[in-house]
Structures are given as structure tokens and as C-alpha cells.
Design brief:
The protein has about 350 residues and is α/β, with parallel strands linked by helices. It has two domains: about 220 residues, Spore Coat Polysaccharide Biosynthesis Protein SpsA, Chain A; about 80 residues, no CATH class. The chain has twelve helices and twelve strands.
């Protein structure tokens, strides 16, 4: 059977530090029917020059005549692609060689799957290992409305997605009213029209860093409120428990905000905390807020550092051989009992 065409779509802006490594990871894919396309959104650095150096190897560069912004550029690069499936790859993230070959055939065999994601390594700016982002359930395909409640609390796909092009167009692509956390919104929209596939192999590397992201946390806090409002207005009819889930999500995101404020300094800390009333009134969150305002940020930071270390320790114990993890999952539809 002929391999379905897949496009790796890379929106880029001032990405000169990471874009070469990202392109190399795309070029190392062991999948024959592949397109790699980069949309440069008016970068002021060497991004376009670096991409052009890879054009002889099959990379296609498009240059936007005007700056479209992050979300507009995401839509532009995907709509300029030709694949049946599209991979949205940020310009600082990396794919393992088997990413496309591990996911595309499963989507092709299960026509109701509208998007897929996988286990990831988390890495820093210099590629240093930080931890894992994985599901405890092993590989699965699940109905979108069954998964939707999990996405009330935030994205579950670490932003390295493969989606069916027709499904992307059916939901209108990325919602350009969202300037941050756009993948979270797209994932929720896609879940309302089909199924999701999770592959429990480490097929990508997601980079966590703060370079070029000054002021990001304040924008993210504002985006969280926008997402909560969107879910309030556009809750799918087939998903129950709206009031309870949204209250838990508000509390969860409010605690994230206090943690973020505890890691900021001076004016940024106060600006972040000023958004707290919009999330709701939660006694434990108010206590943490008072602790930060009273100069106790170090206590909160130390607590969360230990919590994250414990979380990663448990993951490492649970996945003793992460490269060879072969837990089986019963996959509904034409393809069943695949080994991942």
C-alpha cells in the first residue's frame, strides 16, 4: 500500500539558534512520502538564510510578505502544505527518526482519528535532558468526547501534533483570536469531531526554555482566562460535568499562576497576581498568594521543585526501559492490538 503524503510544517520567527537542528530532525525521518515546509514570518535574524541552505535537500521555504503573528503563521504554513496529514513542528522542537512512520500508518488505518501525539523527552535550551511527558495508560485510540474532559485542564499533546488535514479545515484551523496556547484550542476543537491516537514511544523532543520569551507568562495567564471563557461558551453537548470540571480547571490554573508569580520578580509578580480574582475564589490559592506577597516565594519554589523531582523519579521508575517500552493497547477500529 502506498504511503500517505505527510507534511512537516514549521512556523518560524527569529529562530536562528534552533532551526537547523529542527530541520535536521525532520530530514532524518524514515518515511518516504514526506514534505518539509518552513514559513518564515519576517524574521530579523538568519532564520531564512539557514532554511535556504537546506533547500537542496528538499526543504521548501515560504516567506511572508508581512508579519502574520504566531497563530496566523501556523495556519499559513499548514495551508501551504500538500500532505494528507500535517505535523505542526515548532522551530525549536525535534522529531525522532521514527516519528512519522510510527504515527501516520495508524492514522491511515483508523479514519476516525483526527489527531495524534506521542511520548516526548523534555529538553532544555542546550538539549539537556529535563524529563518525560508521557501517559500512564500506554498507547491508545479514544473517542474525542471521552478525552475532552482531560483537556479542560490544559493541552495533553505537548504541541507536537500530527493531524488529518481535512479535520484541520473542518474546524477552521487555528483560531486566530488566540495568541498563546493555540494548540490547546485546536485540540479541543478536533476532539469534538473524531478520535485521538496517543503513541507511547519517545518519538519527539520538546524544548523548554525562556529565550526570546520575555513577558510570556503574563500572556499565558491572559490566554488561560481566554480558554476558560471559550470552554464556558463552547462546552460540547456530549460532555457532562461542566460546572465541576470548569471549577477544578480554574483552581488548577490559578495555582499555576501563583507558582509562576513566585518565580517572577518585582512588577511581573504583582501583574500576574492581579489576574487571580478572574480565576475564582479558592482558599488554598489565596493562602499561596498571601505567602508570595509576604515574601515567601522561595518556600513555594522549593516545594514545587521537590514535587517535580518526585514526579520525574516516579516516571523513570515506571518506564525502566523507556526506549523499549512495548505495552500493548487495544486500538478500536480496523487496526487492533498494535504493539507500540
Amino acid at each position: 500500500m502506498k504511503d500517505a503524503p505527510v507534511s512537516i510544517c514549521i512556523p518560524a520567527y527569529n529562530a536562528e539558534r534552533f532551526i537547523a537542528a529542527t530541520l535536521e530532525s525532520a530530514l532524518r525521518q524514515d518515511y518516504p512520502n514526506l514534505e518539509i515546509i518552513v514559513s518564515d514570518d519576517g524574521s530579523a535574524d538568519r532564520t531564512a538564510e539557514i532554511v535556504q541552505a537546506h533547500e537542496s535537500r528538499g526543504v521548501r521555504l515560504i516567506r511572508q510578505a508581512r508579519n502574520l503573528g504566531m497563530t496566523g503563521n501556523m495556519n499559513a504554513v499548514i495551508r501551504a502544505s500538500r500532505g494528507k496529514y500535517a505535523v505542526k513542528l515548532d522551530s525549536d522542537d525535534l522529531l525522532e527518526p521514527g516519528y512519522v512512520s510510527g504515527i501516520a500508518p495508524v492514522m491511515e488505518a483508523n479514519p476516525r482519528v483526527v489527531f495524534a501525539h506521542c511520548a516526548c523527552r523534555l529538553i532544555g535550551a542546550d538539549g539537556e535532558f529535563l524529563g518525560y511527558e508521557r501517559s500512564i495508560h500506554g498507547s491508545f485510540i479514544r473517542p474525542g468526547l471521552e478525552e475532552w474532559p482531560r483537556y479542560v485542564f490544559g493541552p495533553r499533546a505537548v504541541h507536537i501534533l500530527m493531524f488529518r488535514r481535512t479535520a484541520f479545515e473542518a474546524v477552521g484551523g487555528y483560531d486566530e483570536s488566540f495568541i498563546r496556547s493555540q494548540d490547546w484550542k485546536l485540540e479541543r476543537d478536533l476532539l469534538t469531531i473524531g478520535e485521538v491516537f496517543y503513541h507511547d514511544r519517545l518519538l519527539a523532543r520538546y524544548r523548554c526554555h525562556g529565550e526570546g520569551k520575555q513577558g510570556l507568562q503574563l500572556l499565558r495567564a491572559q490566554a488561560h482566562l481566554q480558554h476558560l471563557d471559550d470552554m464556558e461558551r463552547n462546552w460540547p453537548p456530549g460532555v457532562s460535568g461542566k460546572a465541576g470540571l470548569l471549577r477544578r480547571a480554574r483552581r488548577h490554573l490559578a495555582r499555576w499562576l501563583v507558582l509562576t508569580a513566585a518565580q517572577a520578580n518585582g512588577r511581573e509578580t504583582l501583574e500576574l497576581l492581579d489576574h487571580l480574582p478572574s480565576y475564582g475564589n479558592f482558599l488554598d490559592v489565596r493562602f499561596l498568594e498571601h505567602l508570595v506577597r509576604a515574601g515567601g516565594s522561595g518556600i513555594i519554589r522549593a516545594y514545587y521543585r521537590q514535587k517535580m523531582r518526585l514526579r520525574q523519579t516516579v516516571k523513570k521508575l515506571f518506564y525502566k526501559s523507556p526506549e523499549l517500552s512495548g505495552r500493548r493497547a487495544t486500538i478500536p477500529g480496523p487496526q487492533r492490538n498494535i504493539s507500540c
